[in-house]
């Protein structure tokens, strides 16, 4: 599900054929934010339990997370609490999180209401958005909103560059930036 989401964003088009993420996949894309070109480095981490340890490693450099759940699968929505705990425990600094309800095109199959998603976002003080990776609805907006928040933080620190108040502020500014995508639903795989 999130693999399709990231591919749609990277390619600016829809492909119905995707393979499940095995471990972690990487993509990058240039975004224009306030007349600046930002190269967003995007790490797509697998939601499968066997890859959770690997996902922890990629949280360490993250400054932004798109936490994706499936609005047609309540279990994936319940997994948000687990992933928010992981984000809080394994990120090194303030991380911008956007909670993303995917498959908004499947209105009849919806089991997680928009209000439930908004309530969860309020609980974790993060932004919220519903998307459809199938028809690309709001996919670009989800990335753009997250990268804009990160950009604003960096520009605020850059504006203070001559008067950086703490060593942490300086390190945040100097550090390379990573955006992570987490799928709260384990992907189904078949073998043989």
TrEMBL record:
Pfam families for this protein: Ras
Transmembrane segments: none
Similarity comment text for this entry: Belongs to the small GTPase superfamily. Rab family.
Name under which the protein is recorded: Ras and ef-hand domain-containing protein
Single annotated GO MF: GTP binding
UniProt xrefs under SUPFAM superfamilies: P-loop containing nucleoside triphosphate hydrolases
InterPro entries assigned: P-loop_NTPase, Rab_GTPases_membrane_traffic, Small_GTP-bd, Small_GTPase
């Amino acid at each position: 599900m999130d693999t399709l989401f990231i591919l749609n964003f990277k390619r600016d088009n829809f492909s119905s054929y995707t393979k499940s993420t095995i471990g972690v996949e990487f993509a990058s894309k240039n975004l224009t934010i306030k007349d600046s070109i930002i190269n967003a480095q995007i790490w797509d981490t697998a939601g499968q339990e066997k890859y959770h340890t690997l996902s922890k490693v990629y949280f360490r450099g993250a400054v932004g997370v798109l936490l994706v759940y499936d609005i047609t699968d309540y279990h994936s929505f319940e997994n948000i609490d687990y992933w928010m705990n992981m984000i809080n425990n394994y990120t090194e600094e303030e991380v911008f999180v956007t909670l993303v309800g995917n498959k908004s095109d499947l209105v009849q199959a919806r089991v997680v209401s928009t209000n439930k998603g908004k309530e969860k976002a309020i609980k974790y003080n993060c932004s919220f958005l519903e998307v459809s990776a199938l028809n690309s609805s709001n996919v670009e907006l989800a990335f753009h909103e997250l990268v804009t928040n990160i950009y604003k933080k960096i520009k605020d620190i850059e504006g203070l560059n001559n008067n950086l108040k703490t060593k942490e502020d300086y390190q945040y500014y100097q550090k390379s930036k990573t955006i992570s995508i987490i799928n709260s639903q384990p992907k189904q795989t078949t073998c043989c």
